[in-house]
Every structure is written in C-alpha cells, then in structure tokens.
C-alpha cells in the first residue's frame, strides 16, 4: 500500500505491520496536527499514535484523521472515557501503557483494535484471555530490549509485539529482525521540541530516515 492510498477500509494491523514504525505523538497544540500529518506522509509514513498526555489529544486526532492516507490512533489511553473520546474523534485504534481490562472491553464493544501494554508473561496471558494477539511491549529498552522480546515470544508464539520505549534508528533493526515484532513505536521523529517549534521539515527528514532504516532491516 502506497502513501497515496486512503486507509479508510484497510486492516489496522496490516497497515501498522507494513509501516513497521508507529510514531508516538505528544502534541500540546492541535493547530500543529495537520502540518504534522503532512510531514509524516511526506516522510513516507502512514501511521501515527496521538497520546492522551495532553488536553489537545482528541482535537489533534480529529485534525490528523482528515488526511485519508494516514491511519491515526490514540495512545496513553487509561480510561473508558478516553476510549470514547478517542473513537469519537476518529481514532482507528487504541494503545494503552498497561493492560486495563475496562479499556480493553470498551474497545472491543466499539469494534476498535486495542494494543495494551505488557511487560511480563502474566500480562500477555491476560491479553490472550481477552482474545488479543497484538500487544505493546513497554518500556522496551528498560525491560531488556529485544532479548526480553525474544524470551517472551518463545512461549507465546501467536503474539505480535510493538516494542516502544527507547527505540531509535540506532536499534530498531534488531527489533524488526525478530519475527514476533509487528512494528516499533518511537518518538524520535516527532520529538516534542520539534512539534513545539513547528519544524515540520525536520520531522519529515527524521521520518524518511526512520523509514529507510526500517526497510533496510531484515524482514520477519
């Protein structure tokens, strides 16, 4: 799927898996949402996770979702109320930092893919019990990086991971080379200092470099 094709009817997991990189966006001012969307697309990415770490999250999701080529989801979702606000704004998927049963249930009720954060075998088992097979591994580097992913993937062979936390262009190849890794999440191409400054050209440059690094990585 090219960056020019709309994602309205595309499978969320397939789009994220094809992109292999999921930018984790912390946007303080929703006025920057559409320029950010354009910068990511210009750099070759079709995915974005807008976190509920600021009050601008829902407005930013709504603005970025106007770009039909971009798959926009909500991150750092901690409550059912945030799930509802995210989906109403146009989020196509939900990511949480940990496994929250109420958040997972609400997403499933709304038919929205949800990727809860896990850091242990117990949490992965909870995700499987809830009918999920794709999870966020967070915080990845602090928990042991790709070595820990490999250790957890061994007994949970049906699970796909989205490692996030400390992932950069310097280490993403190691993650993406593992067959259990669907994609990696990261902030380096959408660092808050760049968004606050409106440096969209640098966002595009870093995004393009990340896309090139992902393409160079061994495919699972």
Q: Roughly how many Å is the radius of gyration? A: 16 Å
Overall pLDDT confidence: 95
The backbone outline, from C-alpha atoms, is globular
List the strand order in the largest sheet.
3-2-1-8
Oligomer: single chain
Share of β-strand residues: 15-25%
Count of individual helical segments = 10
What's the total count of β strands? 8
* Portion in helices: 40-55%
Uncertain ranges: none
**Class per helix and strand makeup:** alpha/beta
Notes on the structure:
The chain is of the alpha/beta class. It has ten helices and eight strands. The chain has helices spanning 12-19, 33-42, 57-64, 80-89, 101-110, 121-129, 145-153, 172-176, 192-197, 200-216; strands spanning 21-25, 47-51, 71-75, 94-96, 114-118, 134-137, 160-163, 184-186. The longest helix has 17 residues, at 200-216. The radius of gyration is 16 Å and the shape is globular.
Task: Give the gist of this structure.
The chain has 220 residues and is α/β, with parallel strands linked by helices.
What layout of secondary structure does this protein have?
Blueprint: H1 12-19, E1 21-25, H2 33-42, E2 47-51, H3 57-64, E3 71-75, H4 80-89, E4 94-96, H5 101-110, E5 114-118, H6 121-129, E6 134-137, H7 145-153, E7 160-163, H8 172-176, E8 184-186, H9 192-197, H10 200-216
Parallel strand pairs: 1-2, 1-8, 2-3, 4-5, 5-6, 6-7
Helix pairs in contact: 2-3, 2-10, 3-4, 4-5
What would the keywords be for this entry?
220 residues; alpha/beta; 4-stranded parallel sheet; 10 helices; 8 strands; 42% helix; globular
């Amino acid at each position: 799927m090219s960056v020019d094709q709309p994602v309205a009817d595309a499978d969320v997991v397939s789009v994220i898996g094809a992109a292999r990189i999921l930018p984790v966006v912390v946007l303080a001012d929703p006025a920057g949402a559409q320029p950010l969307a354009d910068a990511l697309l210009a750099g070759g990415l079709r995915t974005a996770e807008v976190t509920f770490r600021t009050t601008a999250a829902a407005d930013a999701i709504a603005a970025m979702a106007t770009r039909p080529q971009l798959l926009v989801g909500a991150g750092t979702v901690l409550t059912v109320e945030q799930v509802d606000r995210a989906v109403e704004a146009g989020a196509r998927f939900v990511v949480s930092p940990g496994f929250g049963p109420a958040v997972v249930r609400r997403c499933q009720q709304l038919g929205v893919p949800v990727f809860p954060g896990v850091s242990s075998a117990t949490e992965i088992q909870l995700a499987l019990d809830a009918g999920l097979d794709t999870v966020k591994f967070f915080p990845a580097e602090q928990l042991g990086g790709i070595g820990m992913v490999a250790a957890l993937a061994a007994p949970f062979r049906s699970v796909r991971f989205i490692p996030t936390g400390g992932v950069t262009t310097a280490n993403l190849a190691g993650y993406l080379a593992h067959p259990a890794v669907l994609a990696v999440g990261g902030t380096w191409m959408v660092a808050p200092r760049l968004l606050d400054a409106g440096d969209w050209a640098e966002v595009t440059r870093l995004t393009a470099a990340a896309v090139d690094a992902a393409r160079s990585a061994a495919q699972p």
